[in-house]
Amino acid sequence: MLIRIVRMTFAPERVPEFLQLFEASENQIRSMPGCRFLELWQDADQPHVYCTHSHWDSADALNAYRRSALFGQVWPATKALFAAPPLTFSVTPATPDQQAADSVQ
Fold it and tell me: Residues in domain ABM (predicted)?
């Protein structure tokens, strides 16, 4: 499983537009092959900063979504609302078994 976090800073006056865009597309994103989970977080101290938190079967599944027509519509519309560049990263769950295997290599 791949977990994807995207931290986005919006111009405060553009937040309603972003929320409308997210609401209109969230179920379509959740329906993409390989998407297991999607939620939206709002920063507790900076209300114009949001993060998407999503779970994907694999990097290939995430990349297939990133090549989709849906992403081609949603991401440019979202980027137009940014007040700063986004911060994106992918992580995988760390389990004791994985950590032990990694330390041997």
Answer: 2-92
